[in-house]
Amino acid sequence: MENKCNLNEKVAREYCGEIELEFRDPKTKEIIETRREPNIVKIFAKEIMSHTIMYGKVWDPNGGTGEGAWVENDSFDDFKLKYMLLGASFDENGVPLDANDERYYQRDEVTGLYAPIQLLPGADYEGGLINAVPIDETNNRPLKKIENVYWEPTYQPAGTPLLQSDVRAINNVLVVETTITEDEYNGFGLTDSDYFTLTEVALCGGIEITSVADCDVDPKDLFLEGPYEATASGGDVIALDSGTDIDKISKGDQIKLLPDGTSAEEQISPFYLVLDKQDSGSDITLDRTPMEGTSAIAGDVNVWRDTLRIFSHRILSTPAKKSSSFEITIRWRIFFT
Fold first, then answer.
1. What are the extents of the domains in the chain?
2. Fewer CB within 10 A of the end CB, N or C, for the chain?
3. What does the DSSP 8-state code read for residue 270?
4. Mean pLDDT of 109-128
5. For 288-326, what is each residue's pLDDT tens digit?
6. Once rounded to an integer, what is the mean pLDDT over residues 62-72?
7. Distance linking the first and last C-alpha atoms of the chain
8. Distance of CA 248 to CAs 224, 244, 255, 305, 330, Å?
9. Rounded to whole angstroms, how far apart are CA atoms 172 and 333?
10. Angle CA(10)–CA(12)–CA(16) in degrees, nearest 5?
11. pTM of the predicted structure, to 2 decimals
């Protein structure tokens, strides 16, 4: 018989994590329910190691009085964890839906139960969420910032396993968390019984945002820097106009591109990857030629630098209904072992 193993046995623990939702009574702070779901975060773990553990300053040998000094270094700021984006299941009228929403869940023909769809790599959602909750701070739907970061220990043998009983604590579980308070994310406010069926959570980095000025905005739009004026050539190279800060966009960035007077709907996707961009140069080589239908885009365009970095994206196995009856602490754990 063929020897089969489950997914948890195939994936090493150092590439794993879990997401925890803790429901509390807003007045007594008693825990009503706790849900934990495993999550594979191999890419996210590598991003943590390569981008966020770096110190926020670098040594300038000529800094200070000329004898050297630590100076600020913001090279990795966009990549540092700052936010948790939330998606929900609701229809075009704002009515909450449950697990029968096919955007999130598929019904098993054998058991009749609904299971989360598989999230695939790529740009299916243009790098965003399936159905993000519009941000509106005046109606208690804020951009959720990470409010706490700390390490939890695990315990490993200090000597030779099975020969020595002493153990040591190692702080190797990274925890980031935020709390949705009792008056946040309670629906669109159409009726007293409104609620959001929260179905997805994403752990993100991006530019630093203190408050949201606009109402009912897609959270992805908040992380666009620009616009910067440019000229499209009808090919896969565009040129930033003179007077633009040409070093704002670098190789490896993702940009949003729109010709003057058009909308994103006229392109298959308005987001493009920067394959090449020289320092102090104005030419940007994209991953493909910008097209509107079957016509290549040429002439004046506006571009925005997309700073949103989604490190891990999770569809909840069981949707969470948020109402004013409780608050929810969302806690993400990453295991480094």
1. 10-206+309-335, 224-306
2. N
3. S
4. 77
5. 999 988 899 999 999 999 999 888 888 998 899 998 889
6. 86
7. 33
8. 12, 9, 11, 8, 34
9. 10
10. 110
11. 0.80
